[in-house]
Design brief:
The chain has 393 residues and is α/β, with parallel strands linked by helices. Helices cover 49% and strands 8% of the residues. A 6-stranded parallel beta sheet has the order 2-1-3-4-5-6, sandwiched between helices.
Length: 393
């Protein structure tokens, strides 16, 4: 009687593993009632864990900051997060939202003309140039200023009654736009910390005409408060413990395997030895990587077929990162026939036939689920069980 050994993927723990195992048993029972499905739950014994109860995570258990720490500047930090995405946001909020613009008297200068002229002259200030160059955004600053003052939102702000009292807001828009442009141009984000950024803003505001004493930034900040609170980084700080608990098994298993994967491979090998042959290894995601590595490194004649599902093994091989086999080296002759099941909607599934000609057969299925649900939809897909029914010894 054939034994199908189910090897799970990254981050799987109980009771999730047992639920998937039962689903596979039900699916195979409908098409091949003669086979036995055996478990290989390596996550409980060989998977990653916070072995020091989270001592490496700041504030673990409190979910907020490190013990004794508060973050009074969180709102300001997250407000800048919004400005980096939309440098004109603050200017739009400060300018009148509706209503016709007042007609200018013949020969009268627009209200923001002095601000615009001063803004376009900012790049000539040596102190400011030094601050911007040290922060890595000097190369884009002049273009950023021109973009802001000529944009529809910038022009609306400069014509508004708020403009003379908000030189800081204009300064923030210039810096945020320069950061955005630099990040889009450079392969790495600019090395601009908050202190350097604020020094540049202060210098710009000092060079612009106007009176920051009348600033309405407080009300503006409150108006975007809901957006600020919804930003991912703010939520991540407040919920770091919960996010760590949710994320570390999946990410940790991958890192642990690539650094020291022998324990996971040995768990699979022990399950193979305990199973009644012939054995078919049905392995998902990281389980497929570990199973292929095991079969490359060891000759296990009881394994008659390897079926990887949603696996990254071909991708790691192409990167030169598959632990058992350098890129360009062929699969050893003792590796059993290999079927690789993938779903084009599963962005964590890869194909291997082009990398191992004649040694792996790629089979596409469609779970009709978006990613990331597509990565776990295989076990509910009748296509998979019809494939297995035809291929199992």
């Amino acid at each position: 009687m054939t034994t199908v050994l189910f090897v799970h993927g990254t981050g799987v723990r109980e009771p999730g593993y047992s639920g998937s195992l039962e689903r596979i048993r039900e699916g195979l029972a409908a098409v091949r009632p003669d086979v036995t499905v055996a478990p290989c739950h390596w996550g409980g014994s060989a998977g990653s864990a916070l072995r020091a109860d989270g001592l490496s995570v700041p504030g673990y258990g409190t979910g907020r900051a490190a013990p004794g720490e508060e973050d009074p500047e969180a709102g300001d930090v997250e407000f800048w997060g919004l400005l980096y995405v939309d440098p004109l946001l603050e200017l739009r909020l400060l300018a009148p939202e509706s209503g016709a613009r007042a007609e200018l008297a013949p020969g009268a200068a627009p209200a923001g003309e002095a601000l615009t002229a001063a803004a376009l002259a900012l790049a000539r200030d040596e102190v400011l140039r030094g601050l911007l160059d040290a922060a890595g955004i000097g190369g884009e600053f002049a273009a950023a200023v021109a973009a802001v003052v000529t944009s529809p939102d910038g022009r609306d702000f400069l014509r508004s009654p708020a403009a003379p009292g908000e030189p800081d807001a204009l300064a923030r828009a210039f810096v945020a736009e320069a950061v955005r442009r630099t990040a889009a141009r450079e392969p790495a984000a600019p090395a601009l910390d908050g202190t350097a950024r604020d020094a540049a803003v202060a210098r710009i505001a000092a060079l612009l005409p106007g009176d920051a004493a009348g600033s309405h930034r407080g009300p503006v900040t409150r108006r975007v408060g809901r957006l600020v609170l919804g930003l991912a980084s703010a939520q991540a700080v407040r919920r770091r413990s919960a996010l760590t608990d949710a994320a570390h098994p999946a990410a940790g298993d991958v890192l642990l395997y690539l650094a020291r994967g022998e324990a996971i491979r040995e768990a699979v090998a022990a399950a193979v030895r305990a199973a009644r042959p012939p054995v078919v290894v049905l392995a998902h995601s990281l389980g497929g990587i570990a199973s292929l590595d095991l079969l490359v490194l060891r000759e296990l004649p009881e394994v008659r077929l390897l079926v990887t599902v949603g696996s990254q093994a071909p991708f790691l091989y192409e990167l030169g990162a598959l632990p058992s086999l350098e890129y360009g080296a062929p699969l050893p002759a003792h590796v059993p026939p290999w079927i690789n099941v993938y779903d084009r909607r599963d962005l964590l599934s890869y194909v291997g036939a082009g990398l191992f000609p004649g040694r792996v057969r790629d089979v596409a299925v469609d779970g009709r689920q978006p990613f990331p649900m597509a990565h776990s939809a295989y076990w509910g897909n009748p296509e998979l069980y019809r494939l297995l029914a035809a291929e199992l010894p």
